[in-house]
Amino acid sequence: MSVVFQSSSGWVLDSLSLINRGYQQCIRWADSDKSHVKCCFKWRCFQILKSRYNLSGESMNQTRQLVGKKKQMVAFRGFLPKYSQCATKQIRSVILEGTKLLVDSARSLGYLTGETDTVEEPLPSQECSLAALCEMAKELPLVEDEEQKECIQLLATEDGCAAHVDLFSQVTENKEDWAAVVTMMGEEYVIPPNTAFLLSDFTRIQPLVQCKKFDLIVIDPPWENKSVKRSRRYSFLPSTQLKRLPVPQLSSSGCLLVTWVTNRPSHLRFVRDELYPHWGVQVVAEWFWLKVTTSGQFVFPLDSQHKKPYEVLILGRCPTNTSTRSSERPEIEDKRLIVSVPSALHSQKPSLSEVLKPYVGAEAKCLELFARSLQPGWTSWGNEVLKFQHVSYFNVTPDDRDELLSLRHTSHHD
């Protein structure tokens, strides 16, 4: 049920199911002993029950009735200044009508009905020191290319020991078909199956470049803005520094590039008019991620001048070799919507794996840059790449299979 509903307007996603599908089989290593466990990301993170504003409490239906008001149109034009009034009105209409259609369809399937679990559970909170560790690792000498025998190392040995892996200068990979709870840097992390990651910043990204080329690259930049500067919740990166990303070296022929962009007009213009052209990437579509409550309401007013209930994804295609026929690539539709209940955890985005798979193929090699979590079958890079993999964000319980095996063993000996 990861993709709850899909139509020509877009998709409704169950973000929690998208995360948990990677942990259906999980092994926990402790002192060379292994046990089967069940790992579930804490549901409390996706229990957004009410809209996060105290203006007038408009519901989505109330907001939709305000389409023609001049004041609201001016506010929305401030978000997309390059569009004409006609184009702006069309985009707003796409968001309102498309979201209503998708939410209504999801409700008919029993989703976004406002029903929640009655069990009280606190929101997990874990102090993340990964970025600081990356800074410390920069003091270590760089390994010369000719000395680097392998760019990929296995997550754990046969006895489950992951304590001695080099997380900062080699890509670490879990090649198994099951997830693993392992201890690294003195903390426990839940690692999905068939996943790889590199914990580093720009100065240590070279092992990733040496590793392989990718057919899909998703970028979630730490955009610079005033609220981030005030809160100091995470480090930000000036827009111009993004040009340093080695996207051309990481991209396969015809690679699909997807960038999360804030609602700041300067960021949108920068990606479309500077960043993508700098990499030789052609913009092919602009999508919107709509954030709704468990009842299907926008989390913020659509016409708020402070915070919007959506974020933008700009999709582009990297240059294609003459040997690759463009007809082999599926067409990407413009103005598609992705509707989901957002995470209450700051900067945790929904997985785009199921949404983008038709456009790149099931066997595509996928990469996320500036990642703060891991995905099955993906490679991830960032200085907080393991942030939401910390065991504190999961409910870890014993798996019945261990008890059954123990009972069978006892019965056999009796």
* Terminus-to-terminus distance: 43 Å
CATH topology: Rossmann fold
> Into how many domains do the coordinates divide?
1
Residue share in β-strands: 15-25%
Average pLDDT number: 82
Structural class: alpha/beta
CATH superfamily grouping: Vaccinia Virus protein VP39
**Largest sheet at a glance?**
12 strands, mixed
Per the principal axes of the C-alpha atoms, what is the gross shape? globular
Sequence of secondary-structure elements: EEHEEHHHHEEEEEHEHHEHEEEHEEEH
* Unreliable parts: 54-84, 228-234, 404-413
The CATH architecture comes to 3-Layer(aba) Sandwich
Spatially, the strands of the biggest sheet line up as: 1-2-14-12-13-11-10-15-16-9-6-5
Annotation field: number of helices: 11
Helix content: 25-40%
Tally of strands: 17
Classified by CATH, the class is Alpha Beta
Radius of gyration: 22 Å
How would you describe what is shown here?
The chain has 414 residues and is of the alpha/beta class. It has one domain (3-400): Vaccinia Virus protein VP39 (Rossmann fold, 3-Layer(aba) Sandwich), CATH 3.40.50. Helix content is 26%, strand content 24%. The protein is built from eleven helices and 17 strands. It has helices spanning 15-20, 60-64, 70-79, 85-108, 130-137, 206-211, 226-231, 247-250, 265-279, 353-360, 400-413; strands spanning 3-7, 10-13, 26-30, 33-41, 152-154, 171-174, 179-184, 187-191, 195-199, 214-219, 251-261, 282-291, 310-317, 337-340, 366-369, 378-382, 394-398. The strands form two sheets. It has a twelve-stranded mixed sheet, sandwiched between helices. A hairpin with a 2-residue loop joins strand 3 (26-30) and strand 4. Residues 54-84, 228-234 and 404-413 have low confidence and may be disordered.
